[in-house]
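User: Design a sequence. Structure:
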């Protein structure tokens, strides 16, 4: 980038110490010797915040000339994780802070534990957005993230008798020094009302108004003084207006507005695979889109005259279809407020919007009923019809003249099979039609997006659908969460792998070196000891750090197949009961996962794993050879503790269902070996590490589709696989839940009656792959060679590489 923000000024230990003392005494009003670790956390955070604020001002100043194209990343989720440690690393003052806190007699890592995770996302999509902000800043790309400042993030998960219970997570009710309210940048958002047309011009009147107030989080990067901004909107009632309607005797109306405004940014919806058509969710989507577009247009107007340069200065990335209403909103602004004609306005939309697809699951594709959009956003519904008409009657008609079936198939409006059902608006089609590029998130996924999801669009616009494989930031997911390994790499490579992850490849020459292997293995063991104490603290179970730590950490979903893992563990347990002297390594199977509160089978799987864990962990007969752990309340900060300690990474989705996965990358980066299907980014991971360094099993996408075509009956497999039959019968017997014998009926029925995700079909192949793992573990020099090669081969999966790809193939930004 042409702005030079690359020279990092640092602080020495004495300056950090002085800063902490000043803030403790003058801002928090406590003496250093009376301060708690929480006070130190707050003081250090406030110190970092001062530096960030300075740097934000510098960044703004350097960008004022408006010479650059800014990236606007619109996402309903940003799972940023704890910020203090990350900021200290980025500022290059982590070690200074460590020494400074030590001089006060406190341990920095204890201090960092005080921060609550901002839980502003469900899982992969939200965490990806956070990794991308880190990389955008690190690569010096001018960027804003736009989202919602939810009062309650994703629910907190606890277990009662092994069953998931949810409680609200009021994450920012504790002190949160990172957000800075910007009341001057507030926006008014209109909802409901009706549209009048006068002389061909549309007027949207009688609307309800709510305020959006922004709240800025500074986004720092590695080795740069640039600070980008994550701007999160909060809903508030408009002032003054309420009294008017109150005077007019419309008390209901005024209360309605107030309640609506305050509800908008209250909660993050906890579903990640089955959108419900809830009015409030639609309002959330429009609310943050309207605020963000108004904000970025105002910024553009402060920097430029006229609209000519808009498309070369602005690019807007839609993180899935959740912000898709941005397309008709920008069209509305251009036509109704800026007097553009429709075709020109659409052309502008199409050159600024890009859309990332994260799912092929048909039930996860967003649709909204036409009636709901027409009521909440009447002008937008008109504009959606207008876009659709233009698309079908010009573009589709030109390519497939007279083909009415094709028009039906590609229409943004889905006609119901049953006329009593409503017409539905397909947000994915709206996004494709309104964007200039559409991308999938891994090579396999993108090719399925082309072939299965949008084949006609791909024919119509052959260059529109592209791939950008996901990535993860090596700063958080190696340097910060695994400092010992980072240090070993530093001292071995003597090059800056943190900003050029491909450099890790140079570690391959050490893969067979006994000394290096020893150090690598030692670090893994240290991390396992640390995780063992977390497990003891959270679950009250002691685990052996010399056992294989086999982890599956991700949202709970049938397609991710935690149930496959469960069935296999049950089989391992049975084998041990049959022969307690079996010569097998000790194994600890570790799960962490939240289930959507309304997803009954997913919750049933959690309950089954917990019941099994209870049984296994207390069975003296198997002499600690097997332990099963379900860590509660999975979140970014817990992932940071599990990932460095993992030996085996479970990536076992049904082929064709996991768009990419990013946990797979984080785990391999930290030296875990993958047991996985040929799905999502696993395919590319296998390509990078080589098939001899990964445990691939199960049906491929083609085999899955062949099997379905032939007609799949899970009962055939159940009848013919003795071990599998035995564990399913055991699950169905009620033995694991004597107080509730039918408890696992939902799971058992799902497996035997439909098994849509082919758990049984892949069982034997999965079990065989585990046998290969056990064999490999028994030959340590072989195991550690593989582990080192995994770490060394993850260069491709840096989110820096993903962002460079976006810049080149989608955003047209030179670096
Ligand atoms: C939609 C409408 C209404 C309510 C909720 C939602 C909703 C919310 C979240 C739908 C989907 C999500 C999240 C999806 C997600 O996390 N997908 C994952 O994205 C990762 C990043 O690309 C991929 O690595 C994963 O494969 C994919 O599952």
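Assistant: Done.
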């Amino acid at each position: 980038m042409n702005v030079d923000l690359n020279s990092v000024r640092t602080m020495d230990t004495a300056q950090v110490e002085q800063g902490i003392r000043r803030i403790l005494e003058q801002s928090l009003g406590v003496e250093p010797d009376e301060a708690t670790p929480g006070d130190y956390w707050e003081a250090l955070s406030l110190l970092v915040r001062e530096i960030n604020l300075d740097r934000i001002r510098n960044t703004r100043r350097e960008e004022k000339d408006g010479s650059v194209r800014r990236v606007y990343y619109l996402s309903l989720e940003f799972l940023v994780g704890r910020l203090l440690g990350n900021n200290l690393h980025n500022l290059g003052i982590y070690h200074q802070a460590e020494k400074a806190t030590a001089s006060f007699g406190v341990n920095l890592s204890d201090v960092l534990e005080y921060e609550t995770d901002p839980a502003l996302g469900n899982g992969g999509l939200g965490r990806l957005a956070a990794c991308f902000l880190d990389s955008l800043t690190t690569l010096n790309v001018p960027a804003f993230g736009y989202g919602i400042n939810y009062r309650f993030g994703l629910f907190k998960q606890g277990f009662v008798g092994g069953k998931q219970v949810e409680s609200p997570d009021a994450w920012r009710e504790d002190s949160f020094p990172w957000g800075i309210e910007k009341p001057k940048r507030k926006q008014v958002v209109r909802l409901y009302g009706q549209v009048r047309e006068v002389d061909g011009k549309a007027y949207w009147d009688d609307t309800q108004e709510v305020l959006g107030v922004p709240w800025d989080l500074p986004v720092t990067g590695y080795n740069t003084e640039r600070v980008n901004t994550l701007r999160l909107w909060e809903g508030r009632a408009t002032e003054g207006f309420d009294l008017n309607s109150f005077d007019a005797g419309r008390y209901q109306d005024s209360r309605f507005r107030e309640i609506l405004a305050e509800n908008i940014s209250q909660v993050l919806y906890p579903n990640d695979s089955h959108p419900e058509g809830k009015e409030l969710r639609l309002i959330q989507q429009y609310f943050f889109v309207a605020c963000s577009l108004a904000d970025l247009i105002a910024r553009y107007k402060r920097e430029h005259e006229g609209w000519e340069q808009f498309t070369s200065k602005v690019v807007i990335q839609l993180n899935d279809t959740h912000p898709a209403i941005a397309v008709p909103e920008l069209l509305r602004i251009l036509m109704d407020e800026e007097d553009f004609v429709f075709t020109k306005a659409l052309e502008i939309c199409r050159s600024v919007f890009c859309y990332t697809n994260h799912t092929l699951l048909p039930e996860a594709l967003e649709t909204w009923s036409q009636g709901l959009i027409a009521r909440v956003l009447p002008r937008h519904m008109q504009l959606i019809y207008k876009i659709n008409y233009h698309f079908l009657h010009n573009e589709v008609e030109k390519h497939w003249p007279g083909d009415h079936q094709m028009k039906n198939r590609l229409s943004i409006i889905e006609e119901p099979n049953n006329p009593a059902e409503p017409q539905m608006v397909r947000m994915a089609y709206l996004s494709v039609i309104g964007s200039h590029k559409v991308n999938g998130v891994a090579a396999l996924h993108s090719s399925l997006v082309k072939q299965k999801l949008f084949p006609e669009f791909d024919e119509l616009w052959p260059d529109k659908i592209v791939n950008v494989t996901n990535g993860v930031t090596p700063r958080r997911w190696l340097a910060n969460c695994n400092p010992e390994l980072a240090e070993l790499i530093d001292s071995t490579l003597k090059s800056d792998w943190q900003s050029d992850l491909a450099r890790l490849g140079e570690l391959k020459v050490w893969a067979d070196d006994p000394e290096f292997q020893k150090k690598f293995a030692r670090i893994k063991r240290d991390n396992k000891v640390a995780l063992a104490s977390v497990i003891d603290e959270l679950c009250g179970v002691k685990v052996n750090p010399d056992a294989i730590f086999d982890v599956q950490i991700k949202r709970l979903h049938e397609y991710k197949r935690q149930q496959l893992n469960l069935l296999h563990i049950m089989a391992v347990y049975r084998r041990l009961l049959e022969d307690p002297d079996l010569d097998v390594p000790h194994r600890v199977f570790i799960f962490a996962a939240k289930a959507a509160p309304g997803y009954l089978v997913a919750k049933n799987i959690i309950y089954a794993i917990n019941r099994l864990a209870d049984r296994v962990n207390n069975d003296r007969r198997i002499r600690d050879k097997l332990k099963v752990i379900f860590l509660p309340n999975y979140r970014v900060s817990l992932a940071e503790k599990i990932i460095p300690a993992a030996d085996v990474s479970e990536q076992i989705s049904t082929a064709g269902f996991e768009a990419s996965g990013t946990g797979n990358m984080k785990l391999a980066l930290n030296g875990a070996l993958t047991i996985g299907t040929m799905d999502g980014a696993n395919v590319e991971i296998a390509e990078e590490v080589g098939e001899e360094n990964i445990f691939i099993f199960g049906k491929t996408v083609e085999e899955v589709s062949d099997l379905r075509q032939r007609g799949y009956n899970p009962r055939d497999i159940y009848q013919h696989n003795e071990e599998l039959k035995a564990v399913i019968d055991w699950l169905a017997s009620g033995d694991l839940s004597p107080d509730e014998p039918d408890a696992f009926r939902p799971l058992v029925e799902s497996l035997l009656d439909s098994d849509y995700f082919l758990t049984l079909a892949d069982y034997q192949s999965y079990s065989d792959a585990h046998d290969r793992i056990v064999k490999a573990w028994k030959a340590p020099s072989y195991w550690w060679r593989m582990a080192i090669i995994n770490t060394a081969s993850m260069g491709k999966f840096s989110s820096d590489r993903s962002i460079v790809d976006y810049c080149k193939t989608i955003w047209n930004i030179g670096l």
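Residues 37-63 form the longest helix (27 residues). The radius of gyration is 27 Å.
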